[in-house]
Design goal:
The complex is a heterodimer of chains A (336) and B (324).
Chain A (H helix, E strand, L loop, with lengths): L8 E4 L1 H15 L6 E7 L4 E3 L6 E3 L3 E4 L23 E10 L2 H6 L2 H18 L1 H4 L7 E8 L4 E11 L6 E2 L3 E2 H4 L2 H17 L7 E5 L6 E3 L4 H4 L9 E5 L11 H13 L3 E7 L12 E6 L12 E4 L10 E4 L1 H4 L1 H7 L2
Parallel strand pairs in A: 1-5, 6-7, 13-14
Antiparallel strand pairs in A: 2-6, 3-4, 7-8, 8-16, 8-17, 9-15, 10-15, 11-12, 11-13, 14-15
Chain B lengths: L1 H14 L8 H4 L4 H14 L4 E3 L16 E9 L10 H11 L3 H5 L9 H6 L4 H28 L54 E10 L4 E9 L8 H5 L11 E5 L6 E5 L4 H16 L10 H12 L12
Antiparallel strand pairs in B: 1-2, 2-3, 3-4, 4-6, 5-6
Helix pairs in contact in B: 7-9, 7-10
The chains are: A alpha+beta (336), B alpha+beta (324).
Chain lengths: 336, 324
């Protein structure tokens, strides 16, 4: 069956809009060129419904917090310390327009294409092998109505389309495939990997299965790590924001595109790494095999999809109305 | 009105001396150093919590610049308080499991020992202060235990689909220009989930999420909890919606909308006026229950505080588990 991916759901923290407002007034002013931002995500989580024997899958959230913009006084690339513990990097581009008219008439297709081209270039040049977080690059269009404390925004999470599409077998819980000792070994190995590697290496990684002990390595170590391995032994892992039992999350799409392009791999086992943060529990992780019918060498950038739908389920912008929380006039009304 | 109040609160905070000596067992209050120690312990035990520095201009110099307040994000809140139901069965088991504890038997109402109106009416009366704190502490302990019990009664099973509400309003009316935007159909994009099975008696209305903050309140010398909520489409919740997630005994009385001390924003906050007295009672109760030689340590303060807070916001499921 065709492998289907669980799309991102954007999740902007309210303080992000405050920081955007400050940047707009103090630094960007009328400069509406594209700026870098930093998003983050956790692995997927299901929560139990109180009093019921069921759980609910939470959305795969890509979050923007108050540290999304680099600190203007900090010349260092302080990205890695700007995201919460147990989260993963998603670098993005933001275009903040000066007027609502600009926001409406903005050439969205061109900006989307620009982002897709960057992702494709990072894949073909090998930059994304060295820094896999580049696979998560996203685009954000904004307009901040500073008088009314209203923020219009639209995310795009570009994913390269595979042609022909990837297919897969059913996803299985790790406990059905691996022994408890293997799963525990993987958890320990990944924790060690996390403590030793820079944060941009954490979202995508390689796994080798041993009878008891597992091993984990960076994507850039592919050749040495899998030297002498049968192709069937290759496992790629990714921090999976999806919490669905049947579908992996969006970041896997560009990873599969890179695997095909870089290593000409048409069949690969995938580990959807899902953890309960801080609780040393990876039992909800999933495994499956993905394959694609053929690989034909190409240098042309594939087509891509990924505009986020709004609350009405349509392709269109969203609105965050913070007047009740930021407008001094409105605050008086809600005071109890 | 609100800004006058805020200036008053600000001035009062400024004039209050910083608590220097530990009095947490006698009063339930803690010093800024103890707040930091308890925060460090919370972050260590529950790593979804983290320290924040907040707005540089709003830093308090009696707190570490990088450890001004605590935050945990995207905490799920599956349903509204009014949807929470406790059966008679639960109540009976509750009493059994509590054995001979006389105070449990003396309270028959399920959330608070006494109606909050009664408590609120006596709020300024010093003589009743002790009794009120006792009642509130007992209510909190009961709620905490009830949740533990509920927890034990439940088992997990898979139900992967996200419940979606039908959007009821047009978000952005003047955005018609965007209607021409279309993306090619993509077979590899998973379509939004359609609710397959909805139990009419217990429909999950929406999965809200909360960002939860804990600040140090210098005037009351206790931690203070703040809530920022989002609906299932990630729109910020307004105060009336947030009150749906607050135990009805507290909504609009001890939970108010105020300016966050480290952010330029108004948030719902649980007023700390009786936190000290209630914490003292809960700490005594915890110490007695466990029958341990060693007393409750001050670095465990926030873990206990969070369990107390979960009786105020019972459906917001933040991590306060000490085991890990």
């Amino acid at each position: 069956m065709v492998l289907q991916f669980h799309p991102w759901a954007s999740a902007v923290e309210a303080p992000f809009w405050q920081v955007l407002t400050q940047r707009k007034m103090d630094i960007f002013k009328l400069d509406d060129s594209v700026k870098p931002v930093l998003g983050y995500y956790s692995t997927g989580q299901q929560v139990r419904v109180p009093g019921k024997d069921t759980t609910v899958a939470l959305p795969a959230r890509l979050c923007l917090g108050p540290a999304a913009f680099p600190d203007p006084e900090d010349s260092e690339l302080s990205g890695p310390t700007r995201i919460p513990a147990f989260t993963f990097l998603a670098p993005g581009l933001v275009k903040n327009t000066n007027t609502i008219e600009d926001f409406k008439s903005i050439d969205k297709t061109a900006l989307f294409k620009m982002t897709v081209d960057q992702i494709w270039d990072d894949i073909t040049s090998g930059r994304a092998v060295l820094d896999p977080s580049l696979l998560n690059k996203f685009l954000l269009l904004t307009f901040a109505d500073l008088k009314k404390f209203k923020f219009y925004y639209w995310f795009a999470f570009p994913a390269l389309q595979a042609d022909p599409a990837w297919t897969s077998d059913a996803m299985q819980e790790v406990s059905l495939v691996w022994t408890p000792a293997q799963t525990e070994s993987l958890r320990l190995q990944y924790d060690q990997y996390r403590s030793q590697q820079p944060v941009n290496q954490l979202g995508f990684f390689l796994v080798k299965e041993g009878r008891e002990a597992m091993s984990v390595a960076r994507l850039q170590d592919w050749n040495e790590f899998f030297a002498g391995c049968d192709p069937s032994e290759i496992i790629v892992g990714f921090a999976d924001p999806s919490s669905l039992d049947s579908h992996p999350g969006w970041p896997l799409r560009n990873l599969l595109a890179m695997i095909l392009q870089q290593w000409k791999i048409t069949k690969v086992r995938v580990l959807c790494y899902r953890e309960v943060p801080g609780k040393q529990d990876i039992s909800s992780s999933k495994l499956f095999a993905a394959q694609v019918a053929s690989y034909s060498p190409t240098t042309d950038c594939p087509k891509a999809v990924g505009w986020e739908k709004n609350a009405q389920g349509k392709l269109g912008p969203r609105l965050a109305d913070l007047a009740p929380l930021m407008d001094p006039a409105r605050l008086a009304d809600t005071a109890v | 009105m609100n800004s006058v109040q805020n200036i008053f609160f600000g001035l009062r905070e400024y004039l209050s001396p910083v608590l220097k000596n530990s009095k947490f067992k006698e009063t339930g209050c803690i010093t800024p150093e103890e707040f930091e120690a308890a925060g460090d312990f919370l972050v260590y035990k529950c790593p979804t919590w983290s320290w924040q520095g907040g707005e540089p201009s709003k830093r308090r110099d009696y707190l570490n610049p990088d450890k001004q307040f605590l935050i945990t994000r995207n905490v799920p809140c599956l349903r509204r308080v009014k949807q929470m139901e406790y059966t008679d069965e639960d109540a009976e088991m509750q009493i059994e499991s509590d054995g001979a504890d006389s105070w449990v038997m003396s309270h028959s109402s399920r959330v608070s020992g006494r109606p909050i109106e009664e408590l609120a009416g006596n709020m300024d009366d010093d003589e009743d202060e002790e009794a009120e704190a006792e009642a509130e502490a007992q209510a909190a302990i009961r709620a905490m235990e009830r949740m533990k019990l509920q927890d034990q009664l439940q088992s997990a099973a898979a139900e992967p689909e996200d419940q979606q509400d039908i959007p009821d309003m047009d978000d952005i009316p003047d955005m018609d220009d965007f209607d021409d935007m279309e993306e090619e159909a993509d077979p590899a994009t998973l379509a939004p989930a359609v609710p397959t099975e909805v139990d009419p008696g217990d429909k999950i209305l929406s999965v809200r999420t909360y960002d939860v903050f804990i600040t140090y309140d210098k005037y009351y010398q206790t931690p203070r909890m703040w809530l920022f909520g989002y609906d299932e489409h990630r729109r910020p919740l307004v105060s009336s919606q947030i009150f749906e997630d607050v135990s009805q005994d507290y909504a609009k009385k001890t939970v108010t909308i105020e300016t966050h001390p480290h952010l330029n924003m108004s948030l719902a906050s649980i007023h700390p006026c009786r936190h000290g007295a209630v914490m003292k009672k809960i700490i005594e109760k915890v110490a007695n229950d466990e029958g341990k030689e060693e007393p409750v340590r001050v670095d465990q303060y926030l873990i206990i505080f969070l369990k107390f807070m979960s009786s105020v916001v019972p459906t917001i499921d933040y991590d306060n588990t000490i085991s890990a």
